[in-house]
Design goal:
- The structure is a single chain.
- This protein has one domain: Cytochrome c-like domain (Cytochrome Bc1 Complex, Chain D, domain 2).
- 55% of the residues lie in helices and 0% in strands.
- The chain has four helices and no strands.
- Helix 2 crosses helix 4.
- The longest helix has 18 residues.
């Protein structure tokens, strides 16, 4: 039984690690409009180095960011915000 519990715990931890995403991976969707380095693209503003927490959690002024970002967990938002703040 102890062996089974150990294996089960390892599987759960492994699955959690696979589901975790880093900031660069999360930023790929943002980069389509805001540029690969957050430098802005066309009419879309530069976001590199900025704190985007409010937009991700509450929504922004204009579409497509008028509402909170669906599908992002609190941890993913923190990871993404940290990544964007670190862009140079």
């Amino acid at each position: 039984m102890k062996r089974f519990m150990t294996i089960a715990a390892m599987l759960v931890l492994g699955a959690g690690m696979l589901m975790a995403q880093d900031g660069a991976t999360l930023f790929k969707k943002c980069a389509m409009c805001h540029g690969a380095n957050g430098e802005g693209k066309g009419a879309n503003p530069a976001i590199k180095g900025k704190d985007v927490t409010a937009v991700l959690t509450n929504g922004g002024k204009k579409a497509p960011h008028a509402a909170k970002f669906a599908g992002l967990t609190d941890d993913q938002i923190k990871t993404l915000v940290t990544y964007v703040k670190g862009l140079q």
